[in-house]
Design goal:
249 residues, 36% strand, 13 strands, 1 helix, mainly beta, eight-stranded antiparallel β-sheet, elongated, 4% helix
Protein backbone atom coordinates (compact mmCIF):
# COMPACT_ATOMS: atom_id res chain seq x y z
CA UNK A 1 0.00 0.00 0.00
CA UNK A 2 1.37 3.35 -0.96
CA UNK A 3 2.03 5.72 1.90
CA UNK A 4 1.93 9.45 1.60
CA UNK A 5 4.52 11.39 3.52
CA UNK A 6 3.92 14.96 4.46
CA UNK A 7 6.88 17.26 4.37
CA UNK A 8 7.21 19.08 7.65
CA UNK A 9 7.68 22.78 7.31
CA UNK A 10 10.65 24.16 9.20
CA UNK A 11 9.64 26.91 11.57
CA UNK A 12 11.83 29.90 12.28
CA UNK A 13 12.51 30.86 15.88
CA UNK A 14 10.66 33.84 17.23
CA UNK A 15 12.81 36.15 19.30
CA UNK A 16 12.63 39.34 21.26
CA UNK A 17 15.26 41.62 22.66
CA UNK A 18 15.45 44.80 24.69
CA UNK A 19 18.07 46.93 26.34
CA UNK A 20 18.60 48.77 29.59
CA UNK A 21 21.62 51.01 29.95
CA UNK A 22 23.43 52.46 32.92
CA UNK A 23 25.04 55.39 31.16
CA UNK A 24 28.02 56.58 33.15
CA UNK A 25 29.94 59.80 32.62
CA UNK A 26 33.22 60.08 34.55
CA UNK A 27 34.54 63.51 35.51
CA UNK A 28 37.82 64.02 37.40
CA UNK A 29 37.93 66.93 39.86
CA UNK A 30 41.31 67.31 41.64
CA UNK A 31 41.62 63.99 43.51
CA UNK A 32 38.01 62.83 43.28
CA UNK A 33 36.40 60.84 40.48
CA UNK A 34 32.76 61.89 40.19
CA UNK A 35 30.31 59.80 38.21
CA UNK A 36 26.79 60.52 37.12
CA UNK A 37 24.42 58.31 35.23
CA UNK A 38 20.94 57.68 33.99
CA UNK A 39 19.17 54.48 33.07
CA UNK A 40 17.18 53.95 29.89
CA UNK A 41 14.94 50.95 29.37
CA UNK A 42 13.75 50.39 25.81
CA UNK A 43 10.93 47.93 25.26
CA UNK A 44 10.85 48.33 21.51
CA UNK A 45 12.25 45.12 20.05
CA UNK A 46 9.93 42.18 19.50
CA UNK A 47 9.16 39.71 16.77
CA UNK A 48 6.08 37.65 15.99
CA UNK A 49 3.97 37.07 19.07
CA UNK A 50 6.92 36.93 21.47
CA UNK A 51 7.14 39.73 24.02
CA UNK A 52 9.43 39.96 27.05
CA UNK A 53 10.10 42.81 29.46
CA UNK A 54 13.39 43.70 31.08
CA UNK A 55 12.75 44.84 34.66
CA UNK A 56 14.93 46.53 37.29
CA UNK A 57 12.72 47.20 40.35
CA UNK A 58 15.49 48.60 42.59
CA UNK A 59 17.09 50.88 40.03
CA UNK A 60 16.54 54.61 40.52
CA UNK A 61 18.59 56.98 38.32
CA UNK A 62 18.76 59.66 41.00
CA UNK A 63 20.78 57.31 43.23
CA UNK A 64 23.61 57.32 40.70
CA UNK A 65 24.31 61.05 40.90
CA UNK A 66 27.77 61.98 42.16
CA UNK A 67 28.96 58.43 42.76
CA UNK A 68 32.59 57.57 43.51
CA UNK A 69 34.94 54.61 42.98
CA UNK A 70 34.12 52.04 45.62
CA UNK A 71 30.39 52.84 45.65
CA UNK A 72 27.59 50.29 45.25
CA UNK A 73 24.47 50.98 43.16
CA UNK A 74 21.26 48.98 43.44
CA UNK A 75 20.54 47.41 40.05
CA UNK A 76 18.66 44.11 39.72
CA UNK A 77 17.84 43.09 36.14
CA UNK A 78 15.34 40.31 35.51
CA UNK A 79 12.90 39.28 32.78
CA UNK A 80 9.11 38.87 32.57
CA UNK A 81 7.35 36.98 29.77
CA UNK A 82 4.19 38.72 28.53
CA UNK A 83 2.94 36.35 25.86
CA UNK A 84 1.41 32.91 25.41
CA UNK A 85 4.58 31.27 24.07
CA UNK A 86 6.96 29.57 26.48
CA UNK A 87 10.36 31.23 26.12
CA UNK A 88 13.99 30.74 27.04
CA UNK A 89 15.65 33.97 28.17
CA UNK A 90 19.18 35.33 28.30
CA UNK A 91 20.75 38.51 29.69
CA UNK A 92 23.80 40.11 28.08
CA UNK A 93 25.80 42.59 30.16
CA UNK A 94 28.47 44.80 28.56
CA UNK A 95 30.93 46.41 30.98
CA UNK A 96 33.60 48.94 29.94
CA UNK A 97 37.20 48.10 30.79
CA UNK A 98 40.50 49.91 30.64
CA UNK A 99 44.04 49.76 31.95
CA UNK A 100 43.19 50.67 35.53
CA UNK A 101 45.26 50.98 38.66
CA UNK A 102 43.00 49.40 41.27
CA UNK A 103 43.55 50.42 44.89
CA UNK A 104 42.55 48.97 48.23
CA UNK A 105 40.69 51.01 50.85
CA UNK A 106 44.02 52.45 52.11
CA UNK A 107 45.05 53.68 48.66
CA UNK A 108 47.61 50.94 48.02
CA UNK A 109 47.84 49.83 44.38
CA UNK A 110 46.62 46.30 43.70
CA UNK A 111 47.36 46.39 39.95
CA UNK A 112 49.99 48.13 37.83
CA UNK A 113 47.73 49.59 35.14
CA UNK A 114 48.88 47.33 32.30
CA UNK A 115 45.89 44.95 32.16
CA UNK A 116 42.34 45.74 31.06
CA UNK A 117 40.04 45.59 34.08
CA UNK A 118 36.29 46.31 34.32
CA UNK A 119 35.23 49.72 35.61
CA UNK A 120 32.21 48.09 37.24
CA UNK A 121 31.49 44.77 38.94
CA UNK A 122 28.27 42.80 39.24
CA UNK A 123 27.52 41.85 42.84
CA UNK A 124 24.87 39.61 44.39
CA UNK A 125 23.76 40.24 47.98
CA UNK A 126 25.20 36.93 49.18
CA UNK A 127 28.61 37.18 47.49
CA UNK A 128 31.57 39.55 47.59
CA UNK A 129 34.07 40.19 44.84
CA UNK A 130 37.85 40.71 44.93
CA UNK A 131 38.64 43.78 42.85
CA UNK A 132 41.66 42.66 40.86
CA UNK A 133 40.24 40.72 37.92
CA UNK A 134 37.45 40.51 35.35
CA UNK A 135 35.36 37.92 37.20
CA UNK A 136 31.80 38.87 38.12
CA UNK A 137 29.52 37.68 40.94
CA UNK A 138 25.89 36.87 40.24
CA UNK A 139 23.10 34.47 41.28
CA UNK A 140 24.75 31.40 39.78
CA UNK A 141 22.15 29.04 41.25
CA UNK A 142 19.65 30.55 38.76
CA UNK A 143 21.78 31.95 35.93
CA UNK A 144 24.66 30.37 33.99
CA UNK A 145 27.51 32.30 32.40
CA UNK A 146 28.29 31.28 28.83
CA UNK A 147 32.01 31.86 29.24
CA UNK A 148 34.83 31.74 26.73
CA UNK A 149 36.84 28.60 27.63
CA UNK A 150 36.40 29.31 31.35
CA UNK A 151 38.04 32.74 31.18
CA UNK A 152 35.15 34.20 33.15
CA UNK A 153 33.60 36.24 30.33
CA UNK A 154 31.93 35.64 26.97
CA UNK A 155 33.48 38.26 24.69
CA UNK A 156 36.33 40.72 25.19
CA UNK A 157 37.43 43.76 23.22
CA UNK A 158 40.75 45.27 24.37
CA UNK A 159 41.12 48.97 25.07
CA UNK A 160 43.27 51.21 22.89
CA UNK A 161 44.63 54.72 23.25
CA UNK A 162 41.44 56.06 21.67
CA UNK A 163 38.76 53.63 22.82
CA UNK A 164 37.64 52.00 26.01
CA UNK A 165 37.61 48.22 25.90
CA UNK A 166 34.69 46.03 26.88
CA UNK A 167 33.93 42.77 28.62
CA UNK A 168 30.67 41.13 27.53
CA UNK A 169 28.94 38.52 29.67
CA UNK A 170 26.02 36.39 28.44
CA UNK A 171 23.91 34.61 31.06
CA UNK A 172 21.33 31.89 30.42
CA UNK A 173 18.33 31.48 32.72
CA UNK A 174 18.39 27.99 34.23
CA UNK A 175 16.02 28.81 37.09
CA UNK A 176 17.46 26.13 39.38
CA UNK A 177 18.03 23.47 36.69
CA UNK A 178 21.43 21.84 36.79
CA UNK A 179 22.52 22.30 33.17
CA UNK A 180 19.47 22.96 30.96
CA UNK A 181 17.45 26.08 30.25
CA UNK A 182 14.20 26.66 32.12
CA UNK A 183 11.32 28.21 30.19
CA UNK A 184 9.26 31.20 31.27
CA UNK A 185 5.51 30.93 30.83
CA UNK A 186 3.04 33.80 30.33
CA UNK A 187 3.32 36.46 33.05
CA UNK A 188 6.12 34.53 34.74
CA UNK A 189 9.19 36.34 36.05
CA UNK A 190 12.73 35.03 36.49
CA UNK A 191 12.98 33.70 40.05
CA UNK A 192 15.98 35.89 40.92
CA UNK A 193 17.55 38.92 39.28
CA UNK A 194 20.87 38.31 37.58
CA UNK A 195 22.63 40.42 40.22
CA UNK A 196 21.62 42.90 42.94
CA UNK A 197 24.15 45.72 42.74
CA UNK A 198 26.79 47.32 40.54
CA UNK A 199 30.10 48.03 42.27
CA UNK A 200 32.22 50.91 40.97
CA UNK A 201 35.80 49.64 40.85
CA UNK A 202 38.11 51.50 43.24
CA UNK A 203 40.42 52.82 40.54
CA UNK A 204 43.08 55.50 40.95
CA UNK A 205 41.84 59.04 40.29
CA UNK A 206 44.60 59.58 37.72
CA UNK A 207 42.82 57.25 35.31
CA UNK A 208 42.91 58.93 31.88
CA UNK A 209 39.26 59.75 31.19
CA UNK A 210 38.39 60.78 27.63
CA UNK A 211 35.08 62.35 26.66
CA UNK A 212 35.05 60.36 23.41
CA UNK A 213 34.93 57.02 25.22
CA UNK A 214 31.76 55.13 26.09
CA UNK A 215 31.74 54.21 29.79
CA UNK A 216 28.22 52.79 29.85
CA UNK A 217 27.05 49.51 31.33
CA UNK A 218 24.46 47.92 29.04
CA UNK A 219 22.02 45.18 29.98
CA UNK A 220 20.14 43.45 27.14
CA UNK A 221 17.42 40.80 27.45
CA UNK A 222 16.84 38.16 24.76
CA UNK A 223 14.05 35.63 24.43
CA UNK A 224 13.35 32.78 22.04
CA UNK A 225 10.50 30.27 21.76
CA UNK A 226 11.14 26.85 23.31
CA UNK A 227 9.69 24.82 20.43
CA UNK A 228 11.04 24.04 16.94
CA UNK A 229 14.63 24.94 17.77
CA UNK A 230 16.09 21.70 16.45
CA UNK A 231 16.56 21.02 12.74
CA UNK A 232 13.89 18.33 12.83
CA UNK A 233 11.59 20.22 15.18
CA UNK A 234 12.89 18.47 18.30
CA UNK A 235 13.39 20.51 21.48
CA UNK A 236 16.78 22.06 22.29
CA UNK A 237 17.54 23.26 25.82
CA UNK A 238 21.34 23.37 26.01
CA UNK A 239 22.27 27.02 26.77
CA UNK A 240 25.09 27.56 24.26
CA UNK A 241 23.18 25.84 21.45
CA UNK A 242 20.10 28.01 22.01
CA UNK A 243 22.20 31.18 22.29
CA UNK A 244 23.73 30.36 18.91
CA UNK A 245 20.20 30.16 17.50
CA UNK A 246 19.54 33.68 18.78
CA UNK A 247 22.71 35.32 17.47
CA UNK A 248 22.51 33.55 14.08
CA UNK A 249 19.04 34.98 13.28
Amino acid sequence: MEQKHKKRRKRSPVMAAMTASLLVLILLVTTMAMLSSQDIVKNTFNAGSLDITLIEPKWHPENAQGILPGDYLDKDPGVVSNEELDVYVFLKVSIPCDKLIIEDVSGNALTNGTADLPLFKLVSDDQKEADTNALQKYHDDVWKLLDDDNNGYTYYTPSTDDNCGEYVYVYAYLGGNAVTLRELQKDEQTSKPLFDKVYVSNFNENFNVKASRDYSVRVEAYGIQTRYLGDGGEPVNEPKAVWQKIISN
